[in-house]
Specification:
The complex is a heterodimer of chains A (213) and B (576). Chain A has 213 residues and is α+β, with helices and mostly antiparallel strands. Chain A is elongated. In chain A, a hairpin with a 6-residue loop joins strand 7 and strand 8. Among the domains of chain B are: 266 residues, Pectate Lyase C-like (3 Solenoid), CATH 2.160.20; 136 residues, Immunoglobulin-like (Sandwich). In chain B, a hairpin with a 2-residue loop joins strand 45 and strand 46. Chain B is elongated and about 145 Å long. Classes of the chains: A alpha+beta (213), B mainly beta (576). The interface between A and B is large, with 71 and 46 residues.
Chain lengths: 213, 576
């Protein structure tokens, strides 16, 4: 087969076209990123890192005796430190620094105490799954273990898993124990897809668990 | 964290201080022990029998009942007397004074002994048996002796037993001069033993021509003194030409031995007065002198206009003894019970056909009733005054209080399982440091004090009129400092009452428990609470930095271009 002489030049032209297009698209997207990041910054949201702490750092991590230190969910390979998080200036529950860490909402109950202990964790980033990316698949009866700062280990059993549209998350349910008479543990993370033009996913998954003796 | 905002509950600092001070210092050194300044804009607020009694401290003040008041066991002295008459205003606020028993022996006896220029309105007296000894001539359920006084929307269901000569009335003993009674009623029992007395369901006697009784009615029973005179379902005697319009009576009494007894007026000794658009269905038994279905004795030229009576209830004559030269327009109906349906939902037979059934009267299964009867207490309270829909008008129940919500403008009802509610205020959340950081209060909040046996665990039921999504709310309690807690076990639900959406909240609180303001098992539970909307938002646990991986995209484009370049070079060499 004889190839036209101009074909390589067309391909080179296309290649340059792709590079130019890539630069333009990348530049545009970068601007979009900067815009969204700017929105997030304005909302007081700190971007999580994708840095994983070392085993040594994990072992050295400490918190007050009554607060949650670690969370373990062996069935989905969750083994993470628990940071204390409050509210952003938009009254949104804050998130941990790293996608591999978890955050205990410091206005929720301490582990083992009446009420619900609320812990959040990241769903993930563009390329990397976060610590709670798998909690939507937890089944009823799955054990979640919380270790407190004093070393006490508390086991919670999953009761249910619910997915809510972002605008309709049942905050009363999230902030209260699934069983009013038993200390609860409620985990939350994102799910769904990113809402265009925002930094938010369009859904939230909540795992409701209760203390088992 | 949260900026100052409007539309939130918790009492204002002033109110809180007032509440706290009232808790610790119920009898401060003021003449009046309750809230308020006693002015028309800031009336004294009455929520206890002591505060009711304190009206004697200021006979010109303005007063408002803020809850029902139970005077059981309270040694009450009539407010004002013939020497120092009450000339202020009392607005019952559609509440009820229960079991009031004014002390005997003060000559003029009632809630008010004597009034001059007073205004009394929106009030009901319920229960209590008043016993009067001889030489106490002016006795009424509300006022003993009245002049220049107005009673509007005032109702009594008391029992008054008098052994005195004089003037005995269900509402007023004697209407002496320029008094007005409107939209009022008596439905209790009156009894007298002194033959020298005037007895009437509304008043014992109207003394002057400038006074009037309108749009009012009486039921209940009168027990006149044997051998007495001037007994009437509305007034014992209309002495000097008072005007009586749009009234009716269904009282029961025996006219045996009575001289001058009528279903509406015992003795009409007037010249220029008027009895118009009224009917008598008084059950009159026994034989006396000058007994008529409507008027016992009529003198001079008092017109009777568009009146009628139910003959089946007693006398066959409208007027027992008529000395007037003007024939009465007084129709006898249902003779011998031959036409009992005459009155039922009937607006076509005369004189009913000439009455005002648009604004004054309304049809009824039996006799016509006054339009204001159905909503005598507070026509604006939902469900005809029964805002909690328990079948009883709220104002009649000391443990059910309906107030206007200062946040929503609609009504909020507090129902407790205790005996008495006080200080019920549905308010907005205060701004500043005392606001609940993570909650909004779209339905406002409610503060109250309830009385129970010490240590009681009470059930509190609250009804917030308006559209509030129960599933998004929790019941919050404020401890009086800056701590808010969610009330455990509180249930919130959306219901409909009389077609209106209502948020219903039920929870329990123990006297002396954690939710009780002072945490004292003293028989008094104080609370400040409200349905809170959690304004904490879910976390953003999916942030994706960067959302669009621009550098990766560029790398991919460059990679494809590189492949093209390599391919182009290969082709170019191949085709050379």
């Amino acid at each position: 087969m004889r190839v036209k002489k101009y074909v390589p030049y067309v391909m080179i032209a296309i290649g340059f076209g792709l590079i130019i297009t890539g630069v333009v698209v990348a530049f545009t997207q970068q601007k979009q990123n900067e815009k969204i990041i700017k929105i997030a910054s304005a909302d007081g949201v700190t971007l999580p890192t994708t840095k994983k702490i070392t085993e040594s750092e994990f072992q050295k991590y400490t918190v007050a005796a009554s607060l949650p230190r670690y969370i373990f969910i062996p069935s989905i390979n969750v083994k993470a430190i628990v940071q204390s998080v409050g509210l952003t200036k938009n009254n949104q529950i804050d998130t941990p620094n790293s996608i591999y860490d978890t955050g205990w909402f410091n206005q929720s109950s301490k582990p083992g105490q009446a009420g619900a202990t609320v812990i959040d964790g990241h769903f993930g980033t563009w390329q990397t799954k976060g610590i709670f990316s798998g909690i939507s698949g937890l089944k009823a009866g799955t054990i979640i273990q919380i270790q407190k700062g004093d070393g006490t280990k508390l086991n919670y059993s999953v009761v249910s898993v619910k997915t809510y549209p972002l605008a309709n998350v049942d905050m009363n349910a999230l902030l209260n124990p699934v069983n009013a008479k038993t200390p609860g543990l409620n985990l939350i993370t994102c799910s769904g897809t990113v809402v265009k033009g925002t930094y938010q996913y369009d859904k939230r998954v909540v795992v409701f668990a209760q203390l088992v003796k | 964290m949260k900026q100052i905002r409007t539309g939130k509950f918790v009492l204002t600092i002033v109110t809180s201080i007032g509440l706290i001070s009232s808790l610790f210092f119920p009898s401060l050194a003021f003449a009046y022990s309750g809230y308020g300044m006693g002015t028309s804009h800031d009336p004294y607020l009455i929520s206890s029998c002591q505060e009711l009694q304190d009206m004697n401290q200021n006979l010109t003040g303005y007063y408002t009942l803020v809850s029902n008041v139970d005077c059981s066991g309270f040694n009450f002295s009539a407010v004002g007397n013939l020497a120092a008459k009450f000339s202020g205003q009392l607005d019952g606020g559609s509440h009820t004074i229960l079991n009031l028993v004014p002390a005997d022996g003060s000559f003029a006896i009632g809630l008010f002994g004597a009034t001059d220029g007073a205004v009394i309105k929106n009030l009901k007296l319920e229960g209590g048996t008043v016993s009067i000894s001889p030489m106490n001539p002016y006795v009424g359920g509300v006022v003993g002796f009245a002049q220049n006084t107005t009673l509007t929307n005032v109702h009594s269901n008391q029992t008054i037993n008098s052994n005195s000569y004089g003037y005995l009335g269900g509402l007023v003993g004697i209407i002496s001069n320029n008094d007005t009674i409107a939209e009022s009623s008596f439905s209790g029992n009156l009894s007298g033993t002194d033959t020298n007395s005037y007895t009437g369901g509304i008043a014992g006697l109207i003394y002057d021509s400038a006074s009037s009784i309108t749009n009012s009615y009486t039921t209940g029973t009168i027990y006149p003194p044997s051998g007495g005179h001037s007994i009437g379902g509305i007034v014992g005697s209309n002495f000097s030409g008072g005007s009586i319009t749009n009234v009716y009576s269904t009282v029961t009494f025996s006219a045996a031995g009575i001289n001058g007894a009528g279903g509406l007026i015992g003795l009409d000794d007037t010249n220029g007065g008027r009895l118009e658009n009224s009917f008598a269905a008084a059950t009159i038994s026994g034989t006396g002198a000058n007994v008529g279905a409507v008027i016992g004795q009529r003198y001079n030229s008092t017109p009777l206009v568009n009146d009628y009576f139910d003959q089946s209830k007693g006398p066959v004559n409208c007027v027992g003894s008529d000395f007037s030269i003007i024939a009465p327009e007084c129709a006898q109906e249902n003779y011998g019970n031959s036409y009992p349906n005459f009155f039922k939902n009937n607006t076509t037979n005369g004189p009913l056909s000439t009455w005002d059934f648009t604004t004054i009267w309304q049809q009824n299964a039996s006799y016509p009733i006054l339009k204001n009867e159905a909503a005598f207490i507070d026509p604006t309270v939902p469900n005809n005054g029964d805002a909690n829909n328990d079948g009883i008008q709220d104002s009649y129940q000391a443990n059910v209080t309906t107030v206007t919500n200062n946040t929503t403008g609609a009504y909020t009802v507090l129902q407790s399982s205790c005996t008495l509610n006080r200080f019920v205020i549905a308010d907005v959340e205060a701004s500043g440091s005392s606001s609940d950081a993570n909650f909004d209060y779209p339905a406002g909040g409610i503060s109250f004090e309830i009385y129970c046996a010490p240590g009681t665990t009470a059930t509190i039921t609250e009804y917030f009129y308006g559209s509030f999504e129960a599933s998004k709310l929790v019941m919050r309690n404020w401890d009086g400092a800056n701590t808010y807690t969610t009330i455990p076990g509180a249930t919130l639900s959306n219901i409909t009452i009389a077609g209106q959406p209502v948020l219903k909240v039920v929870y329990q609180v123990t006297d002396g428990g954690a939710l009780d303001y002072l945490q004292l098992a003293d028989g008094i539970i104080d609370m400040i609470s409200g349905p809170g909307l959690n304004i904490v938002h879910p976390p953003n646990t999916g942030f994706n930095p960067p959302l669009n991986n621009s550098s990766k995209l560029l790398e991919e484009y460059i990679a494809v271009a590189f492949v093209l370049f390599v391919a182009a070079e290969v082709i170019r060499r191949y085709t050379r």
